Amino acid sequence: xxTGTTAAEIAGSVRELHERGTLRPGDALPPVRELAxxxxxxxxTAVAAYRQLAQAGLVxxxxxxxxxxxxxxxxxxxxxxxxxxxxxGSGNPDPALIPDPTAALSRIxxxxxxxxxxxxxxxxxxxxxxxxxxxxxxxxxxxxxxSGAVDAVERLLAQALLRDDAVALEDPCFLASIHTVRLxxxxxxxxxxxxxxxxxxxxxxxxxxxxxxxISTPRAQNPTGVSLSPARAAALREVLAEHPYVLIIEDDHxxxxxxxxxxxxxxxxxxxxxxxxxxxxxxxxDMCLAxxxxxxxxAERLGMRLSPGTTWVSxxxxxxxxxxxxxxxxxxxxxxxxxxYAERNAAFTSALAARGIxxxxxxxxxxxxxxxxPARVAAERLMRRGWLARTGDEFRLDEGSPASxxxxxxxxxxxxxxxxxxxxxxxxxxx
Length: 431
Known about the structure:
The chain is of the alpha/beta class and about 425 residues long. It is about 40% helix and about 15% strand. The chain folds into 3 domains: about 5-70, Orthogonal Bundle (Arc Repressor Mutant, subunit A); about 85-95 and about 330-430, Aspartate Aminotransferase, domain 1; about 110-315, Aspartate Aminotransferase, domain 2 (3-Layer(aba) Sandwich). It has an 8-stranded mixed beta sheet with strand order 4-11-10-9-8-5-6-7, with helices on both faces. It has a 3-stranded antiparallel beta sheet with strand order 12-15-14, covered by helices on one side. A two-stranded antiparallel sheet has the order 1-2. This is Aminotransferase class I/II-fold pyridoxal phosphate-dependent enzyme.
């Protein structure tokens, strides 16, 4: 039984019941009014107790479903699956198209970097500053280096938000973003995505709901492959002009591989922003390096979030990334990879259309294919034919929404024979 007459005592009572196992993950707590009446306290006292518990990560609010004891909520993970099936849902780049770093390695050897020295390699910082400044059109930006885009997003949210703060996410959404927001104890507010990116009404509704941060994918949105159009970006910036302190995080993961121009939510006077570009799609996931261009205040706070643990990303890794990104031959390989992904996706899209499955020719490493049957039904039928596909249900934010009819398929590395077989099997999966 929950006891106490102050917010701290009530929160402490719930914590103790949880530690003893009396309250378990998923158990519902009494509604605020009921708890206040039972304990003979003011309603605001009960509200404050639940807020303390939420900020500590012990409970989560389910809206009309009430407040429940928090648990570990799992979400699907990106990458290859351990299976005998042919995995067409991994979302991985083609390893044959990732530049060989051997030649660049010989050029990065230098004196060791010691504690207390600058955390960013000077050459990489200067190159990244010019790259980001040209696209953002802002002179106030600062460059930070993190261990990949997901690491950057997690730290950017942590430096700006408290537990239970609201974050606007694209819907359907990148799996890592869903996972990061859930583990951080934040509330995800879905913003629908159409063929031009985040919808204007969706973003406006999210801002009205009080979101304090927005995570957007300007190009090759995962899973849909949609890239933000210039017209849509302008309309979204107009909405955001009234909210200059909402943190905008743009995850431009496909930057050097995308055939589309960069269009941004970040306006010229927006006060809190971060443009994050990882190198994993073109230099390989094992590089574990991302560049973040941010406003000065966010850069300082991000630096503080880095300082208690991994204070810097390996300078050897930074030098290697810089050496490859400034090498003409390697940039030509990256450009060739970009052409390959675009051509393979376009060819598969055309072949689907010829078989009566119209699909938007999207950007990125995968295709977002709509079928006439629920995605889970199609995935089960494909599994019987030897394929492992990802259903759109895995990328939804609202678990109560209708079943998805989309599959996310990674097809750029299929042989011609496997491509033909998969096309036939997709048609058969709808019957």
